[in-house]
Amino acid sequence: ISRFKMTALLSLLLGAGPLLLLALNPVHGSDNATLPLVLWHGMGDSCCNPLSMGSIKKMIEETIPGIDVLSLMIGKTVSQDTENGFFMDVNEQVSMVCSQLAQDPKLKDGYNAMGFSQGGQFLRAVAQRCPSPPMKTLISVGGQQQGVYGLPKCPGESSHICDWIRKELNAGAYTDIVQKHLVQAQYWHDPLNDDLYKKHSLFLADINQERVVNETYKKNLQLLDKFVMVKFLQDSVVDPADTEWFGFLKTGQAKETETLQESVLYKEDRLGLAAMDAAGKLDFLGTEGDHLQFTREWFNAKLVPYLR
Ligand SMILES: *[C@@H]1O[C@H](CO)[C@@H](O)[C@H](O)[C@H]1NC(C)=O
Ligand SMILES: *[C@@H]1O[C@H](CO)[C@@H](O)[C@H](O)[C@H]1NC(C)=O
């Protein structure tokens, strides 16, 4: 899920003043060039929207001179890319991205990845399924790592699509037809229908090892140097916001939440997250503000250091 109306964000980003970091942090020498960065946009957004991903790409390029930033386009055109964020089977999207990354000569020595909103969980699937080229650091910015149970607010201009999506989800998120064709159904996590979720969720239940423990996923995820999760502390778009730190509602009810560390996933270490935590590979960042609302200063201070 991504907030489509990024105008407010943009004005924050642009209004934030000059980049002092440039003077303080010279670029690395040529033998140790900065790793390329792959971005995956959120719902309702596209690779190249000048008001959102386009401006973020530009901002990163200005802050880290010489960095290669690839903002993923899912499909052949920008409008297909936006549509696919709602309607294209996520497993297919992930495999398209995997082959795109594998064919990119710039990425062969490794890359960092930053996913915005649903792009955060999609890139984790890339890390788990496609270890080559190697992803080094994964940053999930407001990603729904344990899915969502609710679509409380819809991104501005696509609100009619969202009203429709909400109806479909309520009617039967775990029916095959909805699973296959609705992206948000594929990370719909209904704590009151845990059996249905585990059995029928085509994407999330698979990458979160709900049915079986796929040792390959576990091994691949642990190849990351860092997995950074950013949570927006006043998030009114993602429900529950705890999912941004890999927490979720406790099974069987829809009120109380549990943290990642309290979950079965972690206690049984089904995905390697407990091992990564013990190795200091998990960073949980919180920032004031609603979904995807951050300032350029915050971005430069908290996220840019992972990219140098
Ligand atoms: C280049 O990176 C490697 C591996 O991270 C490190 O061991 C080495 O010291 C770096 N060299 C320079 C010149 O920074
Ligand atoms: C585990 O994941 C790998 C990589 O995606 C896949 O090839 C394999 O079929 C999966 N195994 C199971 C049991 O799901």
UniProtKB/TrEMBL annotation:
<feature type="signal peptide">
    <location>
        <begin position="1"/>
        <end position="29"/>
    </location>
</feature>
<keyword id="KW-0325">Glycoprotein</keyword>
<dbReference type="GO" id="GO:0005576">
    <property type="term" value="C:extracellular region"/>
</dbReference>
<dbReference type="GO" id="GO:0005764">
    <property type="term" value="C:lysosome"/>
</dbReference>
<keyword id="KW-0458">Lysosome</keyword>
<keyword id="KW-0256">Endoplasmic reticulum</keyword>
<comment type="similarity">
    <text>Belongs to the palmitoyl-protein thioesterase family.</text>
</comment>
<keyword id="KW-0964">Secreted</keyword>
<dbReference type="InterPro" id="IPR002472">
    <property type="entry name" value="Palm_thioest"/>
</dbReference>
<protein>
    <recommendedName>
        <fullName>Palmitoyl-protein thioesterase 1</fullName>
        <ecNumber>3.1.2.2</ecNumber>
        <ecNumber>3.1.2.22</ecNumber>
    </recommendedName>
</protein>
<keyword id="KW-0333">Golgi apparatus</keyword>
<keyword id="KW-1015">Disulfide bond</keyword>
<dbReference type="GO" id="GO:0008474">
    <property type="term" value="F:palmitoyl-(protein) hydrolase activity"/>
</dbReference>
<keyword id="KW-0378">Hydrolase</keyword>
<keyword id="KW-0732">Signal</keyword>
<dbReference type="GO" id="GO:0006898">
    <property type="term" value="P:receptor-mediated endocytosis"/>
</dbReference>
<dbReference type="GO" id="GO:0005783">
    <property type="term" value="C:endoplasmic reticulum"/>
</dbReference>
<dbReference type="Pfam" id="PF02089">
    <property type="entry name" value="Palm_thioest"/>
</dbReference>
<dbReference type="GO" id="GO:0005794">
    <property type="term" value="C:Golgi apparatus"/>
</dbReference>
<dbReference type="InterPro" id="IPR029058">
    <property type="entry name" value="AB_hydrolase_fold"/>
</dbReference>
